[in-house]
Specification:
heterotrimer, A mainly alpha (342), B alpha/beta (404), C alpha/beta (597), B: 5-stranded parallel β-sheet, 12 helices, C: alpha/beta, 11 strands
């Protein structure tokens, strides 16, 4: 009996940690840009797949696409007539460096197949940069639109990313080795090292994000943008950069969760959506704005999934989704989420 | 006029132009009269959507067919293949089927990848009297044949495969089994068949656990199965979830034999599972073990030819079950067309030709396909028997034939 | 701008527009249904069914709510109809009716539970409910056929006539689309429609004018569910095979896409969106897939790009782009004028409003302490004080929007109403510190909304034109109110284009239309230019002469001193003094409070 309980709790916590990284991504993106990013799950998929490519030594087409996009935007920014000469030089240099990093990490990973950490780096750099591109292309131009329009735009982004993923990598699942093979016996339960890595990363990410938001100036600038965009601009905060940064962090976290998860369930084109959905549920339980509550939310979702899969596996989805409603009602009464004027 | 009103009219004008353009595009050219009669086949496959793992290889085989057969000039007829993507949505399957029948004027509809899609178009093809060949798993698509006069299918039914597997289990002395399968139409079909068959075989189905294709964890269900004290577990899924379910069982400490259904008989199963799936007993089609079956088996040359052809275009070892299913469908259609023409049907008479093809399908005898030897009759629209099923075991990362 | 109001003929009313478009929809669709190729007719039916469900969703969006579970209600309608018709021998029409009714009931239950959720919790709850529904259908395999589907559904038959012909079915579906589209379009320009728009703008404001927000929201939710159920039931009888696949999350999102793509502010947008999405898909199928030979994934990418592109350019959807070409349809000025005299409710001579010793604590902060004053008949009272003195809190307590921690409030002789929507019935009306008018509607409609409490026509009357007399009366009053504040020239302007000062006056007009005996104005002069302020003073005097009392919160000393009979001064939550304007102006304590010595 106790064995079973331990197994299920371990399982639930691991599940929760997976959703946790995704919930964090959703929260970061939402708080700064007010976009409920339906496409967030796709960064998980892209992260896992480009990681698989990098490991096996093929040059990721995605890195090339991202580099091209960055170059295009660099050209556009440099052509701005309002800039002085020195500013232009600065832009050119900084963008060149950025593009160089994206391409260099991909090329190095290509050169040294099997190098785990290089592949991680290449993948994270590419996907985080992709996040900034998506922000500049699809969010910045309509930042004044109503939230529902932003949501549908993110659905459009989901379609583009999903189609691209299948186009580049096909429909076959790819297996990926874990960080460290094997696991550890915690009593009767065998926990893989990979699961421990996932939990640890989730926790570290949460703490890092908290410290960043509360303790650093950049983090607080991000928060300021979230509260009042115009006010932040008047204080000299570049809100466009804030948006890009939030998308980069969000995309990066999601990609991280993808490449950590891939060894457990293989990297395949369809892995993003269910994770994105459950991550959204977990994040929304925290009102999509609070990190600590999101932690509770993800654990709740993970544990419920685990236990209901054990008891009534055919009905487990029904249980998980129905459970959401009383929790929402309770949270709504105790601490309602913020509502926005129009 | 106010500028905004003018812009509004321009917008209106452009949208009307676009609408007119799309309507113009929607009209496909009617099939012009050719010197050689033309066989038109529509292939409606789920290339996108949840079933695309099956649809993509099916589409590859169709494209291969198109390349190799449509370019041939030695035939007394031409072949035109029209491909559509129904996105795993039965609603789209229906409307695309209607489009193929009415606008493209096809003789045969090869559809669909999934069971719900195939079921959805049955009424349409029966009303239009057009032959349909499905690539989905459930036997209820073609049974009873009297209610589904124009419906055929190529994949071996779960019933045959499970029957075979259970026979083998009985001979091993297995009395109590558990079912560990997908919660979608494929898994449902397998469970239903299993429940029917165990009644006659004297084996007890003591536990049933389900999972979804994209689940991240299978441990709770595996735990439940382990605790049920089973002699064997039967997994009915497709990779990657079939592999993950298998691994989960081992991880929770289950040590008994693990059997797999036909969904696992593809290369991805061993590619993903690697050492973890060693010893799994998998019900396979002939394609996985074609180089191990007896030389005098009529399937062997057909398989070798198809495997070489497919691997030649798409890469060594890429050929798999799903590609074979659509290949068989296309080839069956060609075979039926030739048989219909030979029996005197007039190619110019579209309606008559369609019915003649259906009649010809029902006369298919001892036809060696990739999935097995087809013997289609008016009461059996699948036409496969035990000879299309094989049992293999994973040894050294390969499918090794253990029973033919 | 103002030339528009002179050009409108009396036929250019919203009724005519709605009817005309509905007729056009029906005509075009019937044409395609009768003469188009059979495949197009199938598409027509599919688009029509989507349009019906999408219209329900658009109505929800207009009310300011998002549902991610609309397809689940379609599933309820489809499965209940199908199961009853096939397995329980119900006649098809009865089964359809039962399916729709079940959807409506489910809508009422789900709505009742979830509509009190705020912010993102509501879409999340509808999402969860939708997923649970899909999973439940699969899990209940023996009854519903599970994931493999449910087939052999008998056709829809009326007596002995079976509706199996595609073309006839298409005409039936599009009649429903036309009636619904025309009806909802008309609804939006009537009493209930204005209330629905107000729900989205500001629930509190809507309540002040008599809208029972909870009930109206629930009604809209149930209507959306009913439409979805109807769409699902018809789907079942048309395709004769259903499975969970067409009713999952993807379909709910597709419906939402259709609504936003087409334009979420109007039911025609839903029809436009459903058609445009299908047309785009077909176009991409033909060009990308067939002509270019590229795989289905490229179609998905292009679709996504088009969706993003259109929304980036026109966030309001296709409808907003077309709308600019749309001629203005609005209610013209009536021939005769009516007077807006305050109804003589309440007891003569007694105080209309009296507050005695009220206090308010927010946690540890004491916002108000021992404040007392009263407003009698035919009086203008001014409430002044430095920032943070507690003026707005006092206002909210007086109108019952906030509960006082201590003290006694009497509004028209009774305690303030527990339901904000009862304020108007007492003859009390108010404006707000931050202007709360419906930006998407015209000035005239905004003012007309003020008359909500006096009206009675509901959704059915609004959809089918049974409320002509009441609407005419309401608009006559609205015109009169606009004349009183001298803004009748702007009647047909969208309210979002107003300058601040004009918007405030529109708020006053809106408050006047319910003929209040007591009018509470929260900083009406903020943002007004000098000339406008003078007009405001004249207006207030006129109102007083006509029998309306006014309680005024203001910062502008000159304005207050010029028009009020009595001044109440607050400072840091305490009542500093009450007296005539001249007394207050010279009082040392008041001067000290303002200058901070």
């Amino acid at each position: 009996m106790l064995d079973t309980l331990l197994f299920l709790v371990a399982d639930g916590i691991t599940n929760g940690a997976v959703y946790g990284l995704l919930a964090l991504s959703l929260i970061v993106v939402y708080t700064v840009t007010r976009v409920v990013n339906i496409a967030q799950g796709e960064y998980v998929t892209l992260g896992a797949l480009s990681f698989a490519s990098a490991l096996s030594g093929t040059f990721s087409v995605l890195s090339a696409i991202v580099a091209a996009g960055l170059a295009a935007f660099a050209l556009k920014d440099v052509a701005d007539r309002r800039l002085t000469g020195t500013m232009r030089v600065r832009i050119v240099l900084s963008r060149a460096l950025w593009i160089f990093i994206v391409l260099a990490t991909a090329w190095l990973a290509n050169l040294l197949p099997g190098s785990y950490w290089l592949a991680v780096l290449a993948s994270l750099v590419a996907i985080a940069s992709l996040g900034t591109l998506i922000y500049r292309l699809t969010v910045e131009p309509v930042s004044g639109a109503s939230p529902i329009v932003l949501l549908i735009v993110s659905v459009g982004v989901y379609m583009v990313l999903h189609g691209t993923a299948v186009l580049i990598w096909g429909a076959e699942p790819r297996s990926v080795p874990p960080v460290v093979e094997g696991g550890v016996e915690l009593g009767p339960v065998f926990v893989t090292y990979q699961s421990l890595w996932i939990c640890a990363s989730s926790l570290v990410a949460m703490i890092a994000l908290y410290l960043f938001s509360e303790r650093t100036l950049t983090g607080q600038a991000l928060q300021a943008t979230a509260v009042n965009r115009t006010g932040a601009q008047l204080c000299g905060i570049p809100v466009g950069v804030a948006g890009q940064l939030s998308f980069a962090i969000g995309a990066g976290f999601s990609a991280l969760s993808g490449l950590l998860l891939a060894p457990l369930i293989t990297a395949n084109y369809d892995m993003g959506l269910p994770i994105g959905l459950k991550g959204f549920v977990a994040a929304a339980l925290g009102g999509i704005v609070e990190y600590p509550t999101a932690l509770v939310g993800v654990l709740l979702v993970g544990l419920t999934e685990s236990f209901s899969a054990f008891q009534v596996s055919a009905y487990r989805d029904v249980v998980v989704y129905l459970m959401v409603i009383p929790i929402l009602l309770w949270r709504n009464a105790v601490r309602p989420p913020e509502t926005h004027g129009h | 006029m106010r500028t905004t009103t003018k812009r509004g009219f321009i917008a209106l004008g452009i949208s009307m132009l676009l609408a007119a353009a799309s309507i113009a595009f929607l009209r496909s050219n009617p099939a012009a009269a050719q010197e050689k009669p033309e066989l038109r086949i529509a292939a409606i496959i789920a290339v996108t959507g949840p079933a695309s793992a099956l649809g993509a290889p099916e589409r590859n085989a169709v494209e291969l067919f198109d390349k190799t057969w449509s370019s041939r000039t030695d035939l007394p007829f031409k072949i035109k293949v029209i491909s559509y993507d129904d996105g795993s949505d039965p609603t789209k399957s229906v409307s695309l089927t209607r489009k193929a029948i009415e606008e493209d004027k096809v003789h045969v509809v090869v559809c669909c990848t999934t069971t719900p899609g195939s079921m959805a178009i049955i009424d349409t093809v029966s009303a239009a009297k057009v032959t349909m060949i499905s690539m989905a798993s459930s036997l209820s698509i073609v049974e009873p044949a009297s209610a589904r006069p124009f419906t055929f299918k190529t994949p071996t039914s779960d019933k045959l495969m499970i029957q075979r597997t259970l026979d083998y289990m009985k001979r091993q002395g297995i009395k109590k089994i558990g079912f560990f399968g997908l919660d979608d139409a494929y898994g449902e079909g397998g469970l239903k068949e299993l429940q029917n068959i165990v009644k006659d075989d004297g084996i007890e189905l003591a536990a049933t656990e389900r999972f979804a294709r994209q689940d991240t964890s299978f441990t709770p269900q595996a735990l439940r199965l382990k605790q049920a004290g089973l002699d064997a577990v039967y997994i009915h899924a497709i990779p990657p979830s079939a592999d993950l379910a298998h691994e989960a069982l081992k991880r929770v400490g289950y040590t008994g034999p693990i059997y797999h259904g036909g969904g696992s008989s593809i290369n991805a199963f061993v590619d993903i599972g690697k050492a973890n799936v060693e010893g799994a007993i998998v019900g396979v089609g002939a394609l996985n073990v074609y180089d191990q079956i007896k030389q005098d088996n009529p399937l062997r040359p057909v398989l070798a030819k198809f495997a070489d052809l497919f691997d030649g275009v798409y890469g060594k070892g890429k050929v798999d079950l799903f590609a074979g299913q659509s290949w068989d469908a296309m080839m069956l259609a060609v075979n039926a067309y030739q048989s219909a023409v030979a029996s005197g049907a007039k190619p110019d008479d579209l309606a008559g030709m369609r019915v003649a093809i259906k009649d010809a399908m029902e006369r298919t005898k001892d036809w060696p396909g990739v999935n097995g030897v087809f013997n289609i009759t008016p009461t059996d629209h699948l036409g496969l028997d035990k000879r299309s099923t094989f049992l293999s075991q994973i040894r050294g990362g390969k499918f090794v034939l253990i029973e033919e | 701008m103002s030339s528009l109001s002179k050009e409108l003929g009396s036929w250019r009313t919203p009724n005519v527009a709605s009817f005309a478009v509905a007729l056009a929809l029906f005509a075009v669709s019937s044409l395609i249904a009768m003469s188009g190729p059979r495949y197009d007719v199938t598409l027509l039916v599919t688009v029509g069914l989507s349009a019906v469900a999408a219209m329900g969703l658009t109505l929800l969006l207009i009310a300011g709510q998002v549902s991610l579970g609309q397809a689940a209600f379609m599933a309820v309608g489809a499965y209940v109809s199908a199961i009853l018709a096939r397995d329980h021998g119900f006649p098809a029409v009865l089964a359809l009716f039962a399916g729709v009714a079940t959807s409506a009931v489910c809508g009422a239950i789900v709505g009742g539970i979830t509509l009190r959720l705020k912010g993102h919790f509501l879409p999340l709850a509808t999402l969860a409910m939708g997923m649970a529904c899909s999973a439940a259908i699969v899990a209940a395999g023996p009854v519903t056929g599970g994931a493999s589907g449910f087939g052999q559904i008998p056709p829809l038959s009326f007596g002995r006539f079976e509706l199996v012909d595609d073309r006839a079915f298409a005409i039936v579906v599009w009649s429903i689309v036309a009636v619904a589209a025309g009806g909802f379009s008309r609804l939006l320009s009537t009493r209930t429609g204005r209330a629905i728009a107000a729900l989205k703008t500001d629930i509190e404001m809507a309540g002040v004018f008599g809208v029972n927000a909870t009930r109206l929201r629930l009604l809209v939710f149930v209507v959306a569910a009913t439409l979805a159920g109807l769409s699902g039931g018809l789907y079942a009888f048309y395709f004769k095979f259903i499975s969970p696949a067409p009713f999952g999350l993807t379909s709910s999102i597709n419906l939402l896409i259709a609504c936003i793509f087409g334009g979420m502010s109007h039911p025609f947008g839903a029809v436009l969106g459903a058609s445009a999405v299908t047309a785009l898909e077909m176009f991409l199928q033909n060009t990308v897939a067939r002509m270019l030979g590229l795989s289905g994934n490229v179609e998905m990418i292009v679709f996504g790009v088009v969706l993003i592109g259109v929304l980036l350019r026109w966030p309001g959807g296709i409808w907003s782009a077309l709308h600019r070409a749309w001629p203005v349809f609005s209610t013209p000025r009536p021939a005769r004028n009516i007077e807006l005299t305050p109804s003589k409710r309440g007891v003569e001579g007694d105080d209309l409003l009296s507050v005695r010793g009220i206090g308010k604590k927010f946690g540890g902060l004491t916002a108000l302490h021992d404040v007392s004053f009263s407003v009698g008949a035919d009086q203008i009272v001014g409430l002044i004080g430095p920032n943070g003195a507690g003026k707005s809190t006092t206002f909210n307590i007086a109108t019952g929007l906030t509960e006082p921690s201590e003290g006694r409030v009497r509004l028209m002789g009774a305690p303030p109403p527990s339901r904000v929507s009862d304020l108007v019935h007492r003859g009390v009306s108010r404006t707000f510190q931050h202007v709360r008018i419906i930006p998407e509607r015209t000035v005239l409609e905004n003012v007309a909304f003020g008359g909500y409490a006096q009206g009675r026509s509901g959704m059915i009357a609004g959809m089918f034109g049974l409320d002509q007399a009441e609407e005419a009366a309401t608009f006559a009053k609205a015109w009169r109110a606009l004349e009183i504040v001298e803004l009748d020239g702007l009647a047909h302007e969208p309210a979002s284009r107003l300058a601040m000062g004009q918007a405030r006056l529109v708020e006053v007009a809106r408050a006047l239309i319910s003929r209040p005996r007591l009018l509470l104005l929260d900083e009406p002069a903020a943002g007004l230019r000098t000339g406008e302020k003078l007009k405001l003073v004249t207006l207030l005097h006129r109102l007083k002469r006509a029998g309306t009392s006014v309680l005024l919160v203001e910062h502008d000393m000159d304005l207050v001193m010029n028009c009020v009979d009595q001044v109440v001064v607050l400072d840091r939550g305490h009542g500093l003094m009450t007296g005539l304007p001249d007394e207050v102006r010279r009082d040392e304590r008041v001067i000290a409070a303002y200058l901070g010595t």
